[in-house]
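TICKET #2291
ISSUE: user wants both folds in one file
ATTACHMENT 1:
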Amino acid sequence: MWLPLHIGIDDTDSTRMGCTTYIASLLIEKITKRDGVFLDYPTLIRLNPNVPWKTRGNGAICLRIRIHADRIDHVIEDTIEIVKVNSDLDNKKTDPGIVFFWGERIPREFSYFSLKTKQDIVKKDEALKLVKKYKAKAFSFKYGRGIIGALAAVGETLTADHTYELISYRIKRNRGTPRKLDDASVFRMDKEMKGLTFNNVDYEKRGILITPRGPDPIFLGIRGESADAVKRAFRLLKIQEEIERWVIFRTNQGTDAHLRTIKNINLVQSYHSVIVNGTLTRNPISIPGRHVIFTIADENKSIDCAAYEPTGKFRNIIRALIIGDIVQVYGGVRPRSEKIPMTINLEKIKIIRLIPKILMRNPICKFCKKHMGSMGKEKGFRCKKCGARERKAKKIQVQIKRNISTGLYIPPPRANRHLTKPLSRYGLEKTFYNNSPSDFWGKESIHLSFLS
C-alpha cells in the first residue's frame, strides 16, 4: 500500500554553517533511492522576517511524497539522521524541528497556522497541539523551536501566488572560499530572461544578487516565474567551479505573503509586517547612518517610518515627501526601545496623493521685476536695485513643482527581503497550482561544459 507523506523541516542552519534547503536536497536523493514518488516540487516557505530568533533566511521546507507503507519508517529514520548530521547543533540559536503528516488533504487548521507564522508571532505549544490533534509526528533537537516552521511548511500548499527558485550547491572542499562565477554571464542571463526571472542583479550598484557570501553550501539561487525559466537561466550562466547538486523549489518568495493590511495605525503591532495608510505629519529628516525618518498619522495615532541606507536612491523618493502627503507604507514593525519609538521599516511605499508645495517669497518690484528685500517686521519691502519701497506689500505664494509623482516605489533588489514582491512581478500573480513536478533535481551540474 502506498501512502502520502508530508515532511516539514526547519531551523537547521546558522550564520557559520548549514542550510535547510541543502538538507532537503540530500533527503530528496534518499527518497528517490527508496522509490518514493514526489507529489509536488519541494517547497521553500519563508516565514515572518521580523521574528527576533529567526535563522539566516527564516525558511522552512516541505517534501510531499507517496511512499510504500513498508518504507515509511526508513524515510523517517533517513530524515532524522540527515537533519542531525547536517544541522549546526552546537549553535545556541539553532533548534531543528521535523514534522511528519500522513494524509491526502492538508487540514485547514494547518493552513491557518502557516499563514500566522508568516505574519505573526507563534509559540511552539500551538504547533504541538495541532500535531497531536491530527496525529502527526514531531521530532526535535534541543528546544525544537523548528517544529513551528516545519508544521508551517506542511500547511502551506501554495495554491495561490508562488514562484520558483533553483538552488545549486557547492562541493565540500570549496565551501568557505570565494564563489567562482563569471559576472558578465549573470548580466547577460538577466537581460535574456527579463520578466521570467527576478532579482538576479542590482543595476544601481552593478552587483550580483544570486550568490550568497557566507560559508554555507549554497553556490547560487535563481528566482523566477516557472521551473522551466529558472532552469533555462541556470544553463545560461558561466560557472567556474564544480557543482555538487541542484534542486528547484516552489516557494512563496516574491509574493508579499508576509504583509497584512491594517485599517488603523493604532492596530499596528511589533514584529508584524504591515500595509497601512497615513498622512505625513513630520517632514522626512536624515539621521546618522544616512537613514531617512518621517512620521505618518491617521485619526487615531501616529507612527515613524524609516528608509535605511541600504535602500539607496529609494531614499530620494522619501526625502521629496512633505507634510500633508497621503501615503501607503509597507514594512516590518520594529518594537519600541528606550531611545527609538515603534517604527515601520519600509519595504515599499505607495504615494496616494501629493499636496501642492507652496513657498512664501518676497514680492517682486514693479519697476525692476526683481524680488524685493524686507525692511523689517511690518515695515514693508524695498528693492535692492532701484530703491523703490512698498510699505503695504506682502509676501506672495509660489507653487513649487514636485519632483515625484503618485505611484508605487520599491527599493533596489539588494535591499529587498525574500518575501518582498518586486515591481516586475506585479500582474504575474498566480491564482492556482495543479502541475506535477518534472526534472526538479540533479546530483551533477547541468552545464559542466561551461566550467573553466
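ATTACHMENT 2:
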Amino acid sequence: MTTRAKGTSEHRQPADELQARIEQVLADPPDDRTALLAEYFVLAEQYGKLHHQLYKTIAISDTYQQQMRELSHQLELSAEKLRRLREIALPICMYCHKIRTDDDYWQRLETYFSSHVDIMFSHGICPDCVKATYSKLGERATSLPDVEALSLSPGSRTKANVQYQDDEPLREMKELLQRVSSAGDPLTPELVKIVERYGKLLRRFNKTVVISDSYQFQLHDLNMRLELMVRTDIMTGLANRMEMLNQLAIEQKRSERHGKVFSLLLGDLDFFKQINDTFGHLAGDRVLRQVAARLRELLRSEDVCARWGGEEFMILLPETPLEQALVVANKLSTAIRELQIPWEDHTLSITISFGVGQFELGSSIDTFIQHVDNALYQAKRLGRNRVEQSAVGGVTNE
C-alpha cells in the first residue's frame, strides 16, 4: 500500500511542481521583463510536455477501450456458442454406449451445423461421404488417407507408426566398418563417425519424407473439402447453381458433339412461404433438406440435382428424352407429395410443381432454361402440384 502511494506521488510530482511554480510567479511576478520571459519559457516547455503526455495517455486509453469492446464482443459470441453446444449433447450415452436416434436431437444438430459452416465441413463430413459426394459431382475420387492417421500430428505419427530401415549403402558401410575394425585399421574411429553421421542423415531424411507425405494427404483432403464448399449448397448438400451451370455446359458439348439428348427438370415447392411464416425458418430449412434428400434417393447416380435458388430445385437428366423425363418428374412429384416431415409436435407436408424440357440442338443453355422456367410458370398458373412440359414454340400440358 505504501509503495503504491509512493509511486503515485512520484508520478504526480512534475505536475505539482509546475502548479507550485505557476502560483509563485502569479503571486510575485518578477520586475525584470527578461526574467519574466525566462519563467514563461520554462512554464511553456513543461506545459507542452504535460500536454503531450495527456494526449498520449488518451490514445492509449482509446486503444484499450477498443480492445475491451472487441474482447467483450468475442466473449458474447463464445457464450452464445457455448450455450448452443450445451443444448447439443454427445449422441453417445456414457453408460450404455448407444447412439441417440431421436429426431429432435438430430434436428437441432442439423440446425447448428447449418449455421456453422466451418465446423460442418471440417468435422461434420466423414471422408467416405466426401469421396462419395466428390464422385457424384463428376470427378474421380482418389483414395483418401486413413482418418486415424490424419488425426495424428506428423511428429506423433512418425514416432508411433514408422520404423526406419537401413538402405543398401548404409549396410555396406557397416559391413566395411566391421572388417576394418577387426583388422585394427587406424582409420576405424573416423570411419565410425562417417557411418554414424550418414545413418543420422538417413533417419532425418526418412522422417522428413513421412512428414511431407502426411501434409500432402491432409492438403489433398482439405482441397476436396474446399471444392465441395464451392460446388455444393450448404443447406441441402446438393450441387449449387454454379455447379449446375457447369454440368449443363458439359452436357451441351456432349449433345453437340455426339448427338446425345438430355432433359431438364425445374421444380418449385408450392406455398413454401406459408411454412416459414407459420413454423419459422428453421422448419423451412428442415423441409428443404428433407426434400433434397428424397430427390437424391430417387435419382440415378449420373443425374445431377441442384438447389437452383430459394425453394427451387433443378435436375439434369443426361441421355434422357422428354418422354422419360416426364415420367421421372411425375415420380418425384408423387414422392414429395407423400413425404411426411416431423417438426416438433407437427408433421409437415408439401407439394412441388415441375417444368420439364428437352434440349434442342442449336439452342443456348440460357434459352433452354428459360423454356423450362416458362413451363414451371405454367404449372404454377394452372393450380400447382403438377408437371408441365416445354416446347420451343410454347408450352403444352402433360
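RESOLUTION: both attachments delivered.
EXTRA DETAIL ON ATTACHMENT 2: The chain has four domains: 2-74, 89-124, 125-230, 241-397.
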